Amino acid sequence: MEPVIELVSTGDEVLTGLIVDTNAGWLSQRLLEQGWQVRRRFTVGDDRSDLVELFEQRSHLADLVIVNGGLGPTSDDISAEAMAAAAGIPLELNEHWLAVMQEKYSNRNRQMPRSNVKQAMLPQGAELIDNPVGTACGFAVRLNRAIFIFTPGVPSELKTMMEQEIIPRLATWFGQRGASEVRRFFLFGLSESGLSDRLDSQDWPAGITLGYRASLPTIEVKLIAEQASPEALAQAERQLLAEVGTHLLARDELDFRRSLGPLLDMQPLTVFEEASGGRLTDTISTITAEFEGHYLSGLPDEARDLGEWLQRSARGPALAIGAEGPQGVPVALLTAEHCQVQTLKVHFRDPLARRKLLAVAALDMLRRHLSRQPVMVDYDILPCSERLTLPC
Amino acid sequence: MEPVIELVSTGDEVLTGLIVDTNAGWLSQRLLEQGWQVRRRFTVGDDRSDLVELFEQRSHLADLVIVNGGLGPTSDDISAEAMAAAAGIPLELNEHWLAVMQEKYSNRNRQMPRSNVKQAMLPQGAELIDNPVGTACGFAVRLNRAIFIFTPGVPSELKTMMEQEIIPRLATWFGQRGASEVRRFFLFGLSESGLSDRLDSQDWPAGITLGYRASLPTIEVKLIAEQASPEALAQAERQLLAEVGTHLLARDELDFRRSLGPLLDMQPLTVFEEASGGRLTDTISTITAEFEGHYLSGLPDEARDLGEWLQRSARGPALAIGAEGPQGVPVALLTAEHCQVQTLKVHFRDPLARRKLLAVAALDMLRRHLSRQPVMVDYDILPCSERLTLPC
């Protein structure tokens, strides 16, 4: 039987939206990679009665509840207290953790503040879960049907504790799971609806699910294999790549250094840009240090003008993103052979989205050139009004 | 009586952490600005029985439940169907919304796909809520104690619907609230712990709460006034500004164009950078178009060398961020009077955080110069190892 797994995020800052709860998403993903699927998520503030009520209720309905946050030393950190109240047991001092905290402080030549003693007060009978990187220990408590695991809200502490302490325990408590596998593909230039029209109508191998996520400037397509054979996943991947062709920008993660770095270790590149702000330069500088990037105002806003300007201005391979003109923004790639320019229309209004799209469109021309593909292709999301190739 | 307000986020993509749920945080903040506080948040996947069970349960415990997502045309969009099942009523076609959708399509010279008809199927008796920017209409249903409001998952559609349709209804249903007021202050260079040590020990006017959020490259301090008088808030603001002094970078929102734009409409600036990638250029290009930005490799990594290089290289006012050296990264401001350079140590390891901090440190030198403040000051988070002023 699949265990019912639930997450509880605590804290007024999360509940009121002052901070975005990235821990819950990370926990869900990390558990999914291990083959466990989170069923429900709850978010409550630093309110004792709301927490007690929720813990009591979930103790009858879930097998595992991972609680995040509320383990700090201050008065609004009440997770342990609320758990003890829900279970009808007292808090008691964990002498071992008190000694660990005192040692952490003395190693830094500091006296432990009295307020930290609170972090060693755990519900009676709780199993301590070590926090190698902080003073908020975790702990596990069983109540009714559920095991509750309490974790710190600081993301780096949560992650360390999950990897080193909690995931190994889950395997013991719930048995090894057949881990589901997710493969990610980042595509540039296709629209989500166009892509799903093409892919959803196909037959896919058994056990394979497709997922989409539009995340400018790219679209992420996921192949999710649950209980599928490695052969089925490999077959699905071939099928996907045959369909999306050269629009594939990166696999697994959108790390331009990984996907473009090997291609860019060549003769130094020069970049000129206007409509993209400094975004193209900033992006390329995450890939390689050996290039020059220039933001200039007053660049041409028409394809032929930009191409000729670039031929006059650059020595060696270069990219240019011109000014915004009535037809769109001209984007040019200069190589030893010729200068290719296309004018792209950007429909998005958000300034940052526009800059990102233009920067990645220029990078995509370079990527296509370096991998010997056609440099100017149709992009669903960036209609092209003009294409020119000027001989050198 | 304060109404009990709850949010429900739906969708496998949110539940599994494939996308971060920014809608819930936005909704909480927007409601809080109107004086309504969200009490609990729930996240469930595209599972009919989980949704039905949750809607039924919350209908007895909440006054208002805002449900986000699951209104699209595809088979995994089941919010309306689950609500109808929870209430024990059928779905029925809303002829008005069907006509609206058909018109939206014909305005774009397209035929409405049959799958869209589903978006006009609402629980019997539901109140339609217009979506001016999409095909997913919202709707409101009363069940037991609660009013349920269904909203689309696309952030721009959600936001438009909230502003134009839902917030005005809330005032009708629950009465005008005494809106709490939040003022935000963005500070650069101070650490969160240093700041809270200085501020938390002070007495603050009645009804004023302080909030902190470290969000690189700045720290946000909030003054939250609940039922406090305008005088108390003004007094708290004076008190805060007296303490943080010239570290204030922006108010209300971290929009460099608003806070620095008026200062930058002067003679054109030139920027040179290396350790910050293209981040300084990219940031300044969001403020003004009339400047030049250059990313170069091989810039000096020592304060005096960078200052002298900048004096030789720039005509007119200029900023430079050098290479990373053993002492840190030199950052220089050249004005008509002199060249000021400081070497800053960046402790953060994340490359993007490092770039942002260096870029904002350089901008902060310019901001201080243009507002006639001392240009080089102590930053808690960027220790300075050397300061130089070279005469021109």
Automatic annotation (TrEMBL), chains A, B:
Domain (MoaB/Mog): residue spans on this chain: 6-173
Xref: InterPro entries: CinA (IPR050101), Competence-induced_CinA (IPR008135), MoaB/Mog-like_dom_sf (IPR036425), MoaB/Mog_dom (IPR001453)
Signal sequence, renumbered to the chain: none
CDD domains: cinA
Gene3D superfamilies: MoaB/Mog-like domain
Protein name (database record): Molybdopterin-binding protein
